[in-house]
User: Fold these one by one.
Assistant:
Number 1:
Amino acid sequence: MILVRRRTGGLPAGPARVGRASSADLSRGDRILRWVSGIAATVPFAGLAVIVVIMVIWAIPAVIYSGTTFFTSTKFFIGNLYAPTLTVSNGISAPHGAIYGALTFIIGTLSSSLIALALAVPISVGGVLMLSEWIPRRLEGPLSTFLELLAGIPSVVFGFWGLTVLGPLLAQHVFPTLARLGVVLPFLKGPWAFNGQGLLTASLVLTLMIIPIIASTTRELVKRVPVLAREGALALGMTRYEMVRVVIIPYVRTGIIASALLGWGRALGETIAVLLIIGMANNPPANAYGTTSTLASGIANQLDAALSDFTGMAVRAIAELGLFLLVISLLTNLAGRLVISRVSGDALPVGRGI
Amino acid sequence: MQLAGANVATKEEVSAGVTVEGLTVKFRGTPLIEGISTFFEPNKVTAIVGPTGCGKTTLLRSINRMHDHVTGMQVSGSVVVEGVNVYGPDVNVREVRRRVGMLFQRPNPFPRSIAENVGLAPRAHGLANRSTVREVVRENLEMVGLWDAVSNRLHGSPFGLSGGQQQLLCLARTLALSPDVILLDEPTSALDPDTTDHIESLMKTLSEHMTVLIVTHNLAQASRISDNVLFLMKGGVVEATSARTFFHDPADERSRAYVSGRIG
């Protein structure tokens, strides 16, 4: 076997090489390492490529069948499986009356993830600045560990807790207060489900789930602010608050945007916690508390029914939902990483106006 | 007292210098400087010299209470600036730092615009308002000779400036608070010879209106610019005298050895 072939002796021809070795002067261990690491390095790329290609192939018939309906219809209905006739659209047939609109899921995904993001960013940044600037050093360690432990809680536990504890609590004690704001913001008027299931509860649980992502990145960035820069502000008699505003925020601003994008990616794709809490309704939310579905929870929820579709179109429609979710998750992740790599240089943003 | 900016040329009052009494600074119990007592004359440039690790910077940072922010630092003794013991009870640290400016070893402009670098601190201290801040920015940038180079990019990033220009910007930022004392911690060690010359001549001008203390490793620089010299070794004062005496006829044998380059 090629992996274990022995070198047959003799000195390698030509001058000694520096840098990447050619196969002629490799020992057996080197060869094994090269093969194993080569395979290891290929797997992630290959995995991603295979997943994308398979999703595209699976989704194509659904893309043709739905056309723009995918983006314009809030109705996702796998059709009447017992009807004697099929519905044909663009030359593709599906069970009678089947319509695969993703708008409900898109609205649910965007609204839940954006509410979560809007709450998680200020909480994370405020919390990290509190930890680094005001909390005594000896408390900083345990508190940050606690923050990072939050990231380790399985999402099904979050979902269960949201369903059994947080939802009922909110429905009884928080939503009635929020509803008073309904005078100004009509979407807060209500009604809501008795157990709190719906968009807002799901968004709050998502908030808790993405705080560790945003907070841990922000913490690293705040730590990287040079001591000399901090001291420059303090030596001018600035207070901690002024130092944070004048020095630290400008240093970490871009990084916060990047980590927010990463957190957003997580919120977009979160499945089981959202599925348990958001109410699994197949319609856009009626108000801020309304039940609905996201792309991820919708896929998980519909898949079982879709498998019973004898034409196979429902599964393909779900593949199209999955492909769309995959693309937007990849884009937010890429954007986040791009911004992070830009911050790693010394390009610093500059504020305006005194 | 004049409030707006550092128009030092018209500042009437004379600084009364800095008196240090029995100053000891320990880091986690280990003394860095011990029992230092000395007087820094007003309107003079005093160079603090000595071998590496002798406590020059530690002494300098005691004067504007920069040790407050380092865990494990304990300061005892007193530092009197303008009749106020900065380690006394009820002392407003913010005001101490307004009156005692500091320039660091390497330039550390804020990640804000050039104008904001100079104008933010006077605004924070209430020394300038929205309408007068432009004038403060201009005066201080002119004072350090940076105005012509940056007047057309006041809202641009300071990180586009050369190292020397950044250090001048930091000096303008410090002067904008009209300090009575200015602390310079090897301010030219990272700079080119031209900017070094420029900053050295600025120190002379500044000393007409404030107490200037400079920590330097560069004995040639100390002899060029200082009126007085404080020579430290192993955390204690060896000799405090005029620059003339220190460089030509020092009293202590160790000073003679240091000046002639035998130690250091």
Number 2:
Amino acid sequence: MEQNHVAHTDHFDPVASKLGMWLFIFTEILLFGGLFIVYSVYRFKHPVEFHLAAEELNVTIGLINTIILLISSMTVAMSITALQLGNKKLTMILLAVTLVLALVFLVNKYFEWGAKIHHDIYPGSEFLMSLSKGDMLFFGLYFFMTGLHAIHIIVGMVLLAVVFVKVRNGSVNQGRVSLLENGGLYWHLVDLIWIFLFPLFYLIH
Amino acid sequence: MTGNTSTQRMPSYLEYQGKYTGIRAWILSTDHKRIALLYLYSQLFFFLAGLVMGLFMKLELIAPGRQIMGPATYNALFTVHGLTMIFLFIIPGLAASFGNFMIPIMIGAKDVAFPKLNLFSWYLFVFGAVIVLLGIFTGDGPPDTGWTFYAPYSLKTNTNVVLTVFGAFVLGFSSILTGLNFIVTIHRMRAPGMGFFRMPLFIWSLYGTAWIQLLATPVVGITFLMVVADRVLHIGFFDPAQGGDPVLYQHLFWIYSHPAVYIMILPAMGAITEIITTFSHRTVFGYKAIAMSSLAIAFVGYLVWGHHMFTSGMSETARLVFSFLTFLVAIPSAIKVFNWTATMYKGSISLEPPFWWAMAFIFIFMIGGLTGLVLGSVSTDVHVHDTMFVVAHFHYIVFGGAGIAFFAALHYWYPKMFGKMYNKKVANRALLLLFIGFNVLYMPMFFLGFMGMPRRYYDYLPQFANLNLLSTIGSWILATALIIIIVNLLRAKKGTPEEMDDPWGGRTLEWKIQSPPSLENFEEIPVIDHEPYELIEK
């Protein structure tokens, strides 16, 4: 065993850190899983209202954001390969591109939410309260789930930014890629959740 | 085995001088043993706080009518009592304290897989506890919803639900990270030769527990966030006025909170297995059956949440299925109890205090388990639902089961953790007193519940007076016994290294090293070449 005779503060096990990240991803999936259950129950109860409310959403912005996230998942995966091949500069460029794409996603989200709020559609608004129960639930779920997803985007950005700094100062390098790999795994998760959110909210009509 | 055979003693983890001194040497330490003690002390603190609240509740119930508090105060008190005992004492439970201390030692490692994450989990625990306390002492008064936060009342009450629920969310996050850390530790840190089927059974139980922590807690986490969103943003997930479904809240809540009972009880069963095996001085009977029953309980425990909702509005089929699955859990639980008794059979039993604690556990747990069948069967549950019967059953399982096992583990590992031995005679007598007090306190509640006394009221009809008086007297006996037990532990005396290293003749790895253990646990990682609980010449 490699850890023999090594002070336990220096202990480093890339398999363990990856296993830990996968377990954490399970918990994230279950976190959103609870919301998907709630979504299914209320859509089953109010199919017509959900159908009509979904038509209010802007499919174009949703589609653009989907493409942005898919590309960012690709760039983060490429950055891992780049670091494994020892190309530090390319790694940093690809990570920076990922971060910029994430930012563009959030800006789009800001305009999308802004338009809704401008039309007086937000949780607790007078207009929304005057609509049917199915509408209230649809938009409640829409804001809560995309909002929680946006928080995950921000967390992922912070994580990737930390990795970026560590790649630059060399503590994440060709021999020690696991932090970058874990950041990438987390980013794929954020992407994956969006892949489910997009059809559930934008494409059901 | 090539364990710690050198006679040279290292400074213990209690004496070890790192780069920090004073309190910082503790709250900045990533040593799993110091973190375990941080958990232990915080948990005991909250346990005593919850105990005081329980005593006040029993005092209010000493006679019919208003005694020392009105209905609103009583509602707040049983809510905060439940929150404190459940989220701050028994859910971290044996895993956070004894698990943290023992996992690395019992599998032959120097620490957990992620020591910094381990410390961070404790910070989150303290942070969550502070938020819960803020929720209790600020705003428009402590929550009065019961620890279950059932909607729609939790959305309508003016009390400070938002902060408390958010605190519970943070505590859940701490629990998730602890579970994650333990799973990775058990997978990656076992000493050479320590296969999965050579691990002590306490580790197996913690392994099952860790998976429940990991896979069940996020569901309640998101549910609590939805309650916060309902109250702050008026989304209406669970508010019928906005189309929400309160019964859906109950489903989501119990999807976590039933498995949470197994988070409490599984490590307890694991510790009892260790104690019975050690004091029977023979190998455990049915090693694989006990190991697998831990996983079976963890798995089946996911599928039984509906039995909390037999009267909430569910289809007949759903109720029958949940009832059937509930009975299934009895099988792995019984496997454990039968294997414990079989382990004692023809053993050379030494009647030390931890063994008596284990006996008390089995007796009380049996009553708790059998009355659980009354609640698991739909027809009888409808009769006793929301009565004192449920309160009695719950306390027999959670306090009489998990809580007593917590103190059993404390008495068992105390010499190992501190290098000190308490007065055994006092320990035995205090346990007897506790056992009497416990049964006098909770046994009458079974009868009260069967007679129809509902739970969660500060007042009751005159015909329930005698049994309630008896129960209140029991609470005083119980509290006295607990004080004696804690004072006895605090007054424990330092023993010589020979006495303390292995006072019970244990066969697991923690008894092969010095007491208290050194910072690194093992100066040299041991190589395991024997079966679990096999007797090894030292």
Number 3:
Amino acid sequence: MTSDHIMNAYDQELKFLANRIAFMGGHAERMVDQAIQALVAANVDLARKVVADDMALDEAQRDVDDKAVIIIARRQPMADDLREIIGAIRISSDLERVGDLGKNIAKRVVSLSDAAQPIQLFRGLEALAQLALTQLKEVLDAYATRSVARIGQVRDRDDDIDAMYTSLFRELLTYMMEDPRNIASCTHLLFCAKNIERIGDHATNIAETVYHIVTGDLMPAERPKEDKSHKVVI
Amino acid sequence: MAFDGPTPGWARRGAASLARAKWLVATALAAIAGLAWLGGLDWPVIGLAMGAVLVAAAVGPGEREAERVSGGAAAPASTGLRAYPAEYIAAAIPDPMAMIDQAGAIVYVNDAARAAFGDFRAGTLIQLRFRTPEFQTFLSGLRDGAAEPHVTDYAERVPIERWFRIVGRPIGHGTNLFVLVFKDQSETRRIDRMRSDFIANASHELRTPLASVAGFIETLRGPARNDAKARDHFLQIMQDQTARMARLIDDLLSLSRLEMKTYAAPSKAVDLHQVIDRVVNAMSQLAAEVGVTIVKQIPTAPVEILGQPDELIQVFENLVENACKYGQSGGKVLVLLDAGKGEAAAGPSVTVRDFGPGIPEEHIPRLTERFYRIDAETSRAQKGTGLGLAIVKHILTRYDARLTIRSWPGEGAAFTVQFPAR
């Protein structure tokens, strides 16, 4: 964005894209955060709000797509600008998916709120959501500041999210085996956990896009695992 | 200075006034010269006229200057704010501050903002960094010149909860520049949060030991009233339970205290040698009790990091204590300090390794959750509260350090604290 274009209108168009991405990022983060809050506190009203918020996100994604297509057709951008625009399209579609997953969690609040659930079930889910939200925030901050210095950690954290998801999966399975009456609620929670894990994957996608926008290269491949130990970085 | 002695005050003031009024004077002198050339005035008259202009310029504006100084209450001496570059003033403001243009692109941020939110490039859209829907509304209100005041609350939940109140004002008239000032509200919010969290956690976790103490009291007053042997046994259990409650309250309080602290990266240099020595000394008693020897592997040169000794001691005490308790069967706990000079990116790291049974894979990612226990019975027998690693994680987050947990089934576990490079 700092590169100087002779055409001021072009800058305006690029700024419009960045502005919409900012809006989508803030909205998606807020939706996931509130969906988890609604889930833990069995707050049906908050859950309904989250479901309604998804509309704005879909609309913003259409805006980004339309504008990007117009810019490409009219300006025929090259190199940096082209990466920037294609990046915006990709990031917006990832964010839209994050919003959908948040909405899906919120929808489950209604069916879960009938019976009181033990608090331990939610602690793990909250911790998982915390990791995914940190991940999402860091990649969006990296997009804002155009710094890829910390982006390498994103992969590590994604592994942690996966490991945590597996652990939660086992825990929920034990609850189901203990008492078949738990099966309905635990299945909902299992889907919530899976959704959060998917949010982490979308954050990793965004990280790769940001890396490509800033450097023009692909993000370096994963390091091989050093030994057979079980390892988690927190 | 060309003068030998101190310059008289009037001369300095006169010279300063002259310098300020130089364009007026130059114009006047040029006009007089022009008139002289056109109208053929006598040279003495011209000289007199020019002299009069100079004197008037030197004395005249001095009075206006005096008015200006007394008018601006904040301005010390005669210089006012103009004498200082705006950047110095902005840098001296302790609250984060950002200057943005009409589109929201950052023109300038002060050091406090960099410390709080990381680096910004000029031209970055500020709404990309502060993305909440409220901030976007606030920003468009500010840009469109909606009615004052322009205030919004901004909250960050991860990695550390922080709250800011952001106030926005336009700069001057028609500059299309705006200044945003961030006021940190985290402390007051955290006090509220701490109260409710503490009550929730304490009431939940204290209920079990309290119920058991109440049960034993009932038994002692009823069926076991005259049974001396049972009384001793029950009193022992009650003592253990009250001790557990005391530990729980200690841990909850220390966690709450940590959460209270404002978000400030630690700034004092601490030698990790001393920290580890103190931890190993403090833990030697416990290690001897459970039959574990603590072995240090430490380079000779001091290894300094930015931090606070008490917090670092708490981190490593918790890690070494866990290693002694849960890796008891291995008979050895290794504390390894690595100065981390090899790679440019890596800072120093400390590893606490035990040789016990290791940690089952599915539990590793969740160890730092509050009250998460692999096995409630073992934990209780080892006098654990379920908060030790939560405290460790909390401290390390503030240090921007990372905790890596490795486990080899049957061969033990290793907890590595990786500090950032300075």
